[in-house]
C-alpha cells in the first residue's frame, strides 16, 4: 500500500487457530493464520494491515507499556509500601483505567487505518467485513465493552460506516494481484 513509515514493517504469520493480529513496537505485525483464512478480499487485508500499521506508527504498544509502568510507579510513590489487599485493589483499578486507554487507541487505529485505505481508494467495506469475521469468531460469552480492551464491534462497524460514507473507491489491479498471490 506504500505507506511511509520510520519503521521497517515486517509481517509474521503464526500458524495457529487464533483469530487475531497485533502490532509490536519497532515495526512487526503478527497475524494468525486462522484470521488470514477468513479474509476473502483485498480490502479486508488492507483494513487489517492499515489498522496494525497505525498501532506501530503511533507507537501505541510503547505508550501503553509506559503508561502502565508510570501508573504503578506513581501509585507506589504515593502510597509507599502497601499491603497485598491494597496492592491488588490498586492494580485492578489501574487495569480498568488501562482498558479505557486501550479502547481509545483501538478506535484511533481504526479511524487512521480507514484514512490510509480511503486515501488509496481501497474499499472501506473491508473494515466492515474484517470486523464481521472478528465478531463471528468471538466467544459467545464475550465481556461487556467496559471490561474489554477493544471497542464493541458493532460500534466499530457503525463509526467506520459513518466515516466512510463519502469514500471514493477504485480497483487497484496491482494490490489485487498481490492479494491473489497471497491467497
Features:
183 residues, mainly alpha, 3-stranded mixed beta sheet
Short description:
The protein has helices at residues 33-38, 42-57, 60-79, 84-119, 125-137, 153-163, 173-182; strands at residues 10-14, 21-24, 28-32. With 183 residues, the protein is mainly α.
Task: Provide an overview of this structure.
The chain is mainly alpha-helical and 183 residues long. It has one domain. 61% of the residues lie in helices and 8% in strands. It contains seven helices and three strands; from the N terminus they run E-E-E-H-H-H-H-H-H-H. The protein has helices at 33-38, 42-57, 60-79, 84-119, 125-137, 153-163, 173-182; strands at residues 10-14, 21-24, 28-32. Strands 1-3-2 form a three-stranded mixed beta sheet. It is globular, with a radius of gyration of 18 Å.
Number of domains: 1
In what range is the share of β-strand residues?
5-15%
Output the structural class.
Answer: mainly alpha
Rounded average pLDDT: 80
Q: Count the DSSP helices.
A: 7
What characteristic shape results from the CA principal axes?
A: globular
Blueprint (SSEs and pairs):
Blueprint: E1 10-14, E2 21-24, E3 28-32, H1 33-38, H2 42-57, H3 60-79, H4 84-119, H5 125-137, H6 153-163, H7 173-182
Parallel strand pairs: 1-3
Antiparallel strand pairs: 2-3
